[in-house]
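Appendix B, record 7
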Amino acid sequence: MSYHIFLSYPRIADERGAVSDIRAHLSRELQIKTGQTKVVVFQDRSGLQGGDPWSRVLEEELHLANVFVPFLCPLWLTSEWCTKEFTLYLEFCNHRGSDPAIVPLLWEKTESRVAKTARQIGILESISKYQAVPWETLRHRDSSYLGYREALGAFADAIAAKLLDQ
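Structure tokens (predicted):
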């Protein structure tokens, strides 16, 4: 058995490696918390190789995903690809007859007034039904920051709970 977690984020969020750092630590934490050594935390920067048909690979990873993690911020909400990932994940869950497992990471406060379309408002309302993990201040810190690992542990707890409930 393996667990698959899909990280959905606007590209700029990983400009200084913040998302990559979370992915690396999260993978180890989830192995410890679930007892499974086969934990795939998918991030497009690490999960795609040169020449890969990226659209197809993203869809395959979304289809495999046990948990979807949106890095919620205004740019995520207005990104065509980020919201497409969310919609595809919901479609795949519906197709396989499973409830969506979503753990939003609150990258930056995101209010409905930043939504530009009715679709974006609907997506924000859907995500708002799930308890978000606060990360607004930590996104400016690296993993050497004193409270980072404790917060990452709490984030991993939220994801592990979703995985173990499946």
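Remarks on this record: The chain has one domain: 3-164. The mean pLDDT is 92.
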